[in-house]
Amino acid sequence: MAEDNDHIITVRIVTPDGVVYDHHARLLVVNAIDGELGIMANHEPIIAPLKIAEVRVERIDGPTHENHIAVNGGFMEFSNNVASIVADSAERQRNIDLSRAQRAKERAEKAIAAANAKHDTDQVKRASVALQRAVNRIQVKQK
């Protein structure tokens, strides 16, 4: 059994609202600013800023048991076989309301169009982030 624990990591995702995810895994895949990272047990310690993207966790309780989490930026720290992700918001695939995410996407697209018409670059940037978040949630839900 001790040998099995040598290949296990703990994955925790925390937002200002509390813990969103806390499980043991064999593999964690995150999308860092510099590219995709796969983290397994005994990986070198690392801190990486994250994109608005999916986090994928291959759980230890089955070779095909994966969890998908929509993470809206933040950062990941990995050391001593514990991956801690801190994000402004994160949502597990099973908790995503697809129709709500699609409405958020439509609102963001309209906001981008309106901001472009007014040449308001700050509003375009804010609405573009909202669009990225909505698209991320939609993609994670549809996995």
Radius of gyration: 17 Å
Shape descriptor? elongated
CATH topology of the largest domain: ATP Synthase, domain 1
Assembly state? single chain
Fraction of helical residues? 25-40%
CATH architecture of the largest domain: Sandwich
Mean pLDDT: 94
CATH homologous superfamily designation of the largest domain = F0F1 ATP synthase delta/epsilon subunit, N-terminal
Number of strands: 9
Spans of at least 5 consecutive residues with low confidence: none
- Distance between the terminal alpha carbons, to the nearest Å? 33 Å
- CATH top level assignment of the largest domain: Mainly Beta
Number of helices: 3
The secondary-structure class comes to alpha+beta
User: SSE order in H/E notation?
Assistant: HEEEEEEEEEHH
Function: Produces ATP from ADP in the presence of a proton gradient across the membrane.
Family: Belongs to the ATPase epsilon chain family.
Membrane topology: Peripheral membrane protein
Subcellular location: Cell membrane
Characterization of this structure:
- Residues 95-142 form the ATP synthase epsilon subunit C-terminal domain.
- Keywords: ATP synthesis, Cell membrane, CF(1), Hydrogen ion transport, Ion transport, Membrane, Transport.
- Residues 10-90 form the ATP synthase F1 complex delta/epsilon subunit N-terminal domain.
- This is ATP synthase epsilon chain.
- The chain is α+β, with helices and mostly antiparallel strands.
- The protein folds into two domains: 2-93, F0F1 ATP synthase delta/epsilon subunit, N-terminal (ATP Synthase, domain 1, Sandwich), CATH 2.60.15.10; 97-141.
- The protein is 32% helix and 41% strand.
- Strands 1, 2, 3, 4, 5, 6, 7, 8 and 9 form a nine-stranded mixed sheet that branches.
- Helix 2 (98-118) packs antiparallel against helix 3 (121-141).
- The protein is elongated.
- The model has no long low-confidence stretch (mean pLDDT 94).
